[in-house]
Design a protein that fits this description.
Blueprint (H helix, E strand, L loop, with lengths): L20 E4 L2 E9 L2 H9 L1 H4 L15 E7 L15 E12 L3 E6 L6 E10 L2 E9 L4 H23 L6 H15 L3
Antiparallel strand pairs: 1-2, 2-7, 3-4, 4-5, 5-6, 6-7
């Protein structure tokens, strides 16, 4: 028997491992427990002005079949300057495949012929929210590592924003995560 008091069921339990993992071939899954309520987290995933703080801006037609445009401006994600040789901007287009506000959002990522798919699942946990991000159809191991390190870094910046913390440097964090996921996901 432990001397530590048990946590009430409505208190959040952090994911067992801060790192994501390959849940099946070509699929990366990562979890975060974030300060809620669920509507707040939904807004940071769907509202272009909130979303741009940790991920990308751009319009999103929030309905199944709706189009999305993700306009990444990496230099705006943290005070860190974009390192030489890194792309400062990137745009990704897709189509919403599932939309059940504020609990589920799924969309294609990229060219329809080669599109991967991202799913966000949100579950209220007391005053916190469990966010599960699953990115499917990733193909080659190099792409899987790049995507894993990207999601880890973007979710870290989202956590910083929501928690009122100093923002971590995007490029330095992404480089560390790319190295770490390269080791963790090596086949």
């Amino acid at each position: 028997m432990s001397d530590e008091p048990e946590k009430p069921d409505d208190e959040p339990k952090q994911a067992a491992d801060e790192y994501g993992a390959v849940s099946e071939r070509g699929t990366f899954r990562i979890e975060r427990v974030l300060p809620g309520p669920i509507e707040r987290i939904w807004a940071y995933l769907t509202d272009p002005e909130k979303r741009r703080k940790s991920f990308a801006t751009g319009p999103m037609d929030l309905r199944t079949g709706g189009q999305i445009e993700l306009k990444f401006r990496f230099a705006d994600l943290s005070p860190e300057k974009t390192p030489p040789g890194q792309d400062e901007k990137c745009e990704v287009y897709g189509r919403i495949t599932q939309c059940d506000p504020p609990r589920l959002l799924s969309y294609t990522w990229g060219n329809e012929q080669n599109a991967s798919e991202v799913t966000f699942e949100l579950k209220q946990r007391g005053k916190s929210v469990l966010l599960v991000v699953t990115h499917r159809r990733l193909g080659d191991p190099g792409k899987l590592v790049r995507v894993a390190s990207g999601w880890h870094t973007h979710l870290g910046i989202l956590t910083d924003h929501l928690s009122g913390l100093e923002l971590r440097p995007f490029w330095a964090a992404k480089a560390r995560m790319q190295e770490e996921y390269g080791k963790r996901l090596a086949t």
